[in-house]
Amino acid sequence: MIVLPPNSSKMDNHIRTVQELLGHSDVRTTMIHTDALNRSARGIRSTADSL
């Protein structure tokens, strides 16, 4: 999972690093992918969550 820090200047540096690692030419594509990953990770629940 990709987690970005809340500080905007640090977040900008991290999103650019992730962009480079994923090979995206446009940072908007990276932001879409990281948002989708973060949303899907929040939606995954373990059976242990209900214990």
Please give a quick description of this structure.
The chain has helices at about 10-20, 25-45. It is an all-alpha fold and about 50 residues long.
Overall number of strands: 0
Structural category is: mainly alpha
- Helical fraction: 55-70%
| Distance from first to last alpha carbon | 24 Å
- Biggest sheet character: none
Radius of gyration: 13 Å
| Net shape | elongated
As an assembly, this protein is single chain
pLDDT < 50 runs, ≥5 residues? none
Your description of this structure?
- There is one protein chain.
- The two termini are 24 Å apart.
- The mean pLDDT is 75.
- The chain is 63% helix and 0% strand.
- It is mostly helical.
- α1 (8-22) crosses α2.
- The longest helix has 17 residues, at 27-43.
- The protein has helices spanning 8-22, 27-43.
SSE topology sketch:
Blueprint: H1 8-22, H2 27-43
Key features of this structure:
51 residues, mainly alpha, 2 helices, 0% strand
